[in-house]
Amino acid sequence: MKILQLIQKQQLRGAEIFAAQLSEELLGQGNEVILVSLFEGVSKLPFSGRCICLEANSDKRFWDFKTWKKLAALIAEFQPDIVQANAGDTLKYAAFSRLLFGWKAKLIFRNANMISGFVTSIPKKIYNDFLLRQVAGIASVSAICARDFIQTFSFPESKVEVLPIGVLPVKETLNLPEDLIKILGASDFLIHIGSFVPEKNHQELFLIFDQILLKFPDLKLLLLGEGPLKPHFQNQFTDRSEILFAGVRTDVDAILPFAKALLLPSLIEGLPGVILEAMNSLVPMISYNVGGISEVVSPETGWLVPKADRGQFVKAVVEVLSFDNKSKLKIQQNAKQLVEDHYQVSVLAKRFEIFYKERIRIN
What we know:
CATH class of the largest domain: Alpha Beta
Order of helices and strands: EHEEHEHEHEHEHEHEHEHEHEEHHH
CATH topology of the largest domain: Rossmann fold
Distance between the termini: 16 Å
């Protein structure tokens, strides 16, 4: 089978990282796979196969005829059975390219979030309904997100498959990266990993952290990620040495195991890979109950808090930091076992392959 994975750009964001990991596994299973990005990016993604950038113009993303044509030409050359659009502008580019140039490969859309949180007006719904007419199947990151997608667009349930994000086996790491040792010293730290965008709710995160500091004044907060809101928060906390902005990192797997907990007070989520990475690294997970997070985080595997209940979130973090190691370890082991049993990329790649073949056969 020939598969073209379309991503926004080569960047260390969940959607792109998983698309690359999935592509690598599909390649290893004997498929032909190419990874195609719309826009230029500088990050190295975990894929050893052929990578192509279409060099799209971000100023013309709503009417980029030249790039739609480029994509069609690439598809004519590669002759894929499947084109999978992975977040960002990928569905828009793929749908218009298919509509205008008539290529026949089956288009799959990777739904990685609660789509209703973004389709906030009738014009947006009409526009996305139009794009979805070109789609043969939806790979949804969670059951909750799948139901939300079906309800939002009245999309045929038979075309939607729940295919969660996955993680790779944990690599053993003995020490924090040297630059973080210098910054953190011997201090315990909490961690947040995510783009600085409104839905990640950083302002709430800082309010939560301030309350936790009242009980644990030597604690630090490590923030990994970039995004449009980052300069605002950096300016807001220039005099706060306990809040550390570390940017995008390629060594998250070497940092996570040393965190006391991963905090995720998001307002909108699908099923973030960072949750599974934390669970796989035996790091306690505290999150608001949004999107598909409740499908993996439960009292047996982590700490799930009602959305926007800051008091309960603070209470959960304090509990994690105060828990005796034996009680906490049981929850951590349960979480790791769940990930190992159901969320390994190697297992999910086989499920994606089956889904692709069904879409090719049915449509």
